[in-house]
Write a structure and sequence with these properties.
23% of the residues lie in helices and 28% in strands. The N terminus is likely disordered. The protein is elongated, with a radius of gyration of 35 Å. The longest helix has 28 residues. With 1043 residues, the chain is of the alpha+beta class.
Length: 1043
């Protein structure tokens, strides 16, 4: 018989030409699969021998989502086979890969587990045409053939290749008798134990044929079965399932078994009915979270393999694949699959308005509430990810009944995704952070002024963040931020408070450490005004709820916490967490592990009603899909003095086309839940976009009470237009018609600190703070002019700045350095002379930094830093005595962090964050600017800056973070202070002399030399060409800043 004839004969009895063509298409799925597995092999297993490379001609790096999906598929098979191999047995072990394609499982096992493979035979079974190709590759590849002893080919009985370790059988899986005959030709079946592996293979068979294979395998008394294939746990109309089924239909390789066995329970019953005594059915998503399959360390290490942030899409994929582990050993015990438990729910009828073309296709944006001059509400879906890239725009949504829309300014933040926008009432809407890529988080924050319809950049986050969660604190203009990621592998472990007057402050943790850092959680605050602090101290407190999110372990957490945020009038904000447990208003609801998915979610939208009911919409859950019955969950969370939260109701959304509640933006307006945008990449099977905007009649109180609301046809929301946003740069105004406004000043917070850790937290936050109540010694009582002169001696000479103007300018040098004795200097300052002393080292002023203890030992005993500032003392660089007359210090920055301790008199400080450096006229390489801040602060010239203001009184300590530009003006004739500089970086400071502690960091100094060298390299080119390329290089540097 010819080879072609033998192949046709082996493809099953009576196979028609059409059926054989279908078999060929099934075999073709192997080509795409092995390319993806090769990508995983190379990226995830760099230190192992690679075997897929012999079957893949050219390496193609797959997207992170596909890599991680195939990684978990390969990992599951590896774990299942490893457990089988490592179990002690006197029998010969046989690993049979059904529909093996070009999988390299035998070589991987022999490499990873050589000690367990001595008494093992690996058997690959697939269509003869595939096996013939695979046999040829094995024979021609020494790395594959050399581990095999006794190798023969064309053995007979469909055995294409035989060796002592590995066998290939070319046979249609429907021909079970041929498989039995082939196996019996080289093993005694009764003396063996088997594991059958079917990774997305028998699902392409007719269901009856696939079930026959499963049943036959169960008749082997000592056998296991590992099945990995698709399921549709929430029906074929689920958007992911619809995309998946359509994909395989287009390939003309439809999934057969998925309709007969759509769920884990159905798959469990399938195997039980086919004679398997012990069956365990799980989804890949459940397996991902199970330490029994993949350890915490293994999940954590994946963060270092490649940047990854497709969590929702990974969960969708993994929830639509099941793993069935079945055993037929004597004494096997049956198990029941775990699935999410929820009451069957009535559906809320939604009205949708379809998008046109790709308009509206936007995911992982954020909703922004707008209002026009007539008082009409509007919604914008801001930035996010479009069909090809991140978007520099937002979609504007209006009610169909509105005759007018809203005008918005076209200048604002740059493109981003996974950011937050929090409505702070009359104060505006706060945009925080986001990302460009999973390894490039953003730090900038913006305030949308509703009255001016325009954006203003405000103080940055202390650290770049995305996937964080922010909630407005009750009805205040304050906000709480929890968690988030600062890069691909680092979860922010703190909590931040936003105050309009001070920007962001890091909260202290108090109480037991019950909070596990997360990103993408559900965060909500109790409605209404804050409560008074219970111990009678001045201040307020807010309480709220935190659930879900993903931990450093890469799993959706089951933690449900109440948080209590205390805001004392003097002191750092403090937050306490305490655990809550879940309850249900329905006594018959089972509260098992599946129940936590009702409120413990990742990537969900959440809202709190005035009555205190928490609504959670969409997202992903720990143990399965957000099914049609739990698309919306309502919980009672703000029952005072309770240790639990109760799930009061769950609802689904009914619409002509089901929405996919992933990557959506949502808001509740006028008893309507408006869902805009959203969609997901459905693994390698295509991208699903929600087809339109959904208007859902929704009132939590009516839902909990069992009432229904029907929408009015003229109250339906629709997409109105696309608004392009130009990224605001240094020469653009932050406001539209309000661009003549002055800069908005923020008050530097005044706090008391109690421990050295408080100061370290302050240092980490990187924001200026006035520390009150610190013990500076007796200097605040004794350092009068006469006392200082008496201690140092009237004839002690010092070099001072003598100015001819009250506004000193370092660049123009409108002052002179003069030598005066202490007595004359102090008298002249008291008489209003414009003098300023910045003390230098007494012994070596040009080589050594100032040191109070060495330079002024007569005064140093009166001064001390508080114990809470021990970090400063331990890392001190210099301590400088400053004595000031009626003269302003010029605008400058210090490279080192420092604390300015006001001893005598008072002084006004204005500080600017490092992000303002390009708006304050600092020349290249200069640390001083000639801008007269106090004269220009109210003018439009500084409108785009972010000034922070403080007035220091005796005993106050101002913490100045590195690179914060600052200027100061005395409010009294005489001012005395001690300024202590300290190192807070482990490396990066310039080597060599640095008397003042403000020499720029070494990388900057080297960078300036590189810039000069680059500019010189273009020197011989025509001016227009030189300008063209230097501008392009400058733009590259700007892009590096934003990346």
């Amino acid at each position: 018989m010819s080879t072609a004839s033998s192949i046709k004969a082996s493809q099953g009895p009576g196979r028609s030409a059409r059926q054989r063509a279908s078999d060929d298409l099934v075999m073709a799925t192997n080509s795409s699969s092995i390319v993806s597995k090769r990508s995983v092999e190379r990226i995830y297993y760099p230190n192992e021998p690679h075997f897929f490379r012999f079957f893949v001609k050219k390496f193609q790096r797959r997207a992170p989502l596909i890599n991680r999906g195939y990684y978990i598929r390969l990992h599951v098979i590896d774990v299942a086979v490893r457990r089988f191999l490592e179990r002690p047995s006197k029998r010969i072990k046989v690993v049979i890969n059904l529909g093996c394609g070009s999988d390299v499982l035998p070589w991987q096992c022999m490499t990873r587990y050589p000690e367990w493979c001595h008494n093992t035979k690996f058997v690959d079974i697939d269509f003869p045409a595939l096996i013939e190709k695979k046999c040829r590759v094995v024979k021609e590849t020494p790395k594959l053939s050399s581990p095999l002893t006794g190798l023969r080919t064309d053995v007979g009985n469909n055995v294409q290749l035989y060796s002592d370790q590995y066998v290939q059988i070319g046979c249609d899986l429907r021909r079970i008798s041929d498989i039995e005959q082939a196996l019996s030709s080289f093993i005694d079946v009764s003396e063996c134990e088997f594991i059958f592996v079917a990774e997305v293979s028998i699902t392409y068979m007719e269901t009856e044929g696939a079930d026959s294979v499963i049943k036959w395998a169960s008749t082997l008394r000592h056998a296991e079965f590992c099945l990995l294939e698709q399921i549709i746990p929430d029906g074929e109309d689920h958007p992911f399932a619809k995309t998946m089924l359509s994909h395989f239909e287009k390939l003309k390789t439809p999934l057969r078994s998925v309709f007969t066995y759509p769920t884990l329970r159905a798959q469990h019953a399938r195997f039980a009915n086919q004679g398997w005594s012990q069956v365990d059915a799980s989804s890949l998503w459940q397996i991902w979270s199970s330490d029994r399959w993949i350890s915490t360390d293994q999940r954590r290490r994946l963060d270092d393999v490649e940047p990854f942030d497709e969590w929702e899409e990974f969960a969708l994929f993994a929830s639509h694949y099941c793993v069935v582990m079945a055993k037929s050993y004597p004494g096997s015990v049956a198990t029941t699959p775990m699935e999410l438990v929820a009451d069957k729910a009535p559906k809320i009828e939604a009205t949708s308005r379809d998008y046109s073309g790709t308009r509206g296709q936007r995911r992982f944006g954020a909703a922004l509430k707008l209002r026009n001059h007539l008082g009409h509400d509007f919604l914008a879906n801001t930035f996010g990810l479009g069909t090809n890239s991140r978007l520099k725009s937002y979609d504007l949504y209006i009610k169909e009944s509105y005759p007018h829309d809203v005008k918005t300014h076209h200048t604002g933040p740059g493109s981003r995704m996974c950011h937050t926008i929090t409505d702070l009432g009359d104060h505006g809407s706060l945009l925080a952070g986001g990302r460009t890529s999973p390894s490039s988080a953003l730090q900038d924050c913006w305030l949308y002024h509703k009255s001016f319809d325009s954006w203003q950049q405000v103080g940055d986050l202390p650290v770049p963040l995305y996937r964080h969660t922010v909630t407005r604190l009750g009805s205040s203009s304050l906000a709480l931020l929890v968690g988030g990621k600062s890069d691909q592998s680092t979860i922010f472990d703190g909590c931040l408070l936003y105050q309009p007057s001070t920007g962001w402050l890091e909260c202290e943790f108090s109480g037991p450490g019950t909070y596990v850092p997360v990103f993408g959680s559900v965060l909500a605050s109790e409605p209404g005004a804050g409560l008074p602090i219970t111990n009678g101290a001045a201040g307020h407190r807010f309480i709220g709820i935190l659930t879900g999110g993903i931990t450093q372990e890469g799993t959706v957490t089951s933690q449900v916490l109440e948080w209590d945020l205390v805001l004392p009038d003097n002191g750092m904000p403090r937050i306490t967490f305490r655990p809550l447990y879940l309850g249900s208003s329905n006594p018959s609801t089972r509260l098992d592990d599946g129940f936590i998915g009702l409120v413990n979610r990742f990537g969900a939208s959440s809202f709190v009603s005035p009555e205190g009911h928490l609504s959670v919409v969409g997202g992903i859950v720990p143990n399965g899909l957000v099914t049609r019955d739990i698309e919306i969950v309502i919980a009672g969370v703000f029952s005072r003095y309770s240790d639990s939260i109760k799930v009061l109701a769950n609802r689904g959304i009914r619409s002509t086309q089901r929405p996919l509640l992933i990557g959506t933006s949502a808001e509740i307006i006028d008893k309507q839940l408006v869902i805009i945008g959203g969609g997901a990449t459905c693994f390698s099977m295509g991208t699903y976009w929600n087809p339109g905007c959904y208007t859902v009649p929704y009132d939590p109180e009516d839902v909990v009470g069992g009432n229904t609301i029907r929408p009015y046809s003229d109250e339906v929301w629709k997409l109105s237009k696309l608004v392009e946003v130009t990224e605001q740069t240094g020469n653009q105004k932050a406001y539209g018609r309000g661009n003549k406004r002055a800069a908005v000043k923020l008050d530097i917070p005044r706090l008391q600190i109690n421990t050295s850790n408080d100061f370290v937290s302050m240092l980490k936050a990187g924001k200026p703070v006035v520390i009150q109540g610190g013990k500076l010694g007796c200097c605040t009582q004794t350092w009068s002019s006469d006392y200082i002169v008496g201690q140092l001696g009237p004839n002690r000479e010092v070099v001072v700045h003598e100015a001819n103007s009250s506004k000193m300018d370092f660049n123009s040098k409108n002052f002179a350095y003069v030598t005066k004795n202490f007595e004359d200097m102090m008298k002249e300052i008291e008489n209003g002379h414009k003098l300023y002393l910045r003390a230098l080292s007494d012994d070596r002023p040009s080589d050594q930094p100032a040191n109070m203890k060495v330079d002024f030992p007569q005064l140093s005993g009166d001064f001390q830093l508080p114990d809470e500032l021990s970090f400063v003392t331990e890392n001190e660089f210099s301590s400088v005595l400053r004595i000031t007359g009626p003269v302003n210090m010029w605008l400058h920055y210090d490279v080192m962090a420092n604390v300015y301790c006001q001893i005598v008199g008072s002084k006004r400080f204005i500080l600017f964050p490092p992000t303002d450096v390009d708006r304050l006229l600092f020349a290249p390489g200069a640390s001083s600017s000639s801008i007269d801040v106090f004269s220009e602060l109210e003018s439009p010239s500084l409108a785009e800056t972010h000034p922070h203001e403080a007035v220091l009184e005796p005993g106050d300590i101002l913490f100045l973070p590195p690179l914060w530009m600052h200027t100061a003006s005395p409010l009294s004739n005489l001012g005395v202070a001690v300024n202590v500089f300290f190192r807070n970086l482990e490396s990066g400071y310039s080597a060599g002399r640095d008397v003042y502690g403000n020499r720029d960091l070494a990388p900057y100094e080297k960078g300036r030399q590189d810039v000069a060298r680059i500019a010189n390299s273009f020197g011989k080119l025509p001016p227009d060409v030189r300008s063209f390329y230097l501008k392009r290089l400058a733009d590259e540097l700007v892009q590096k800043i934003r990346a």
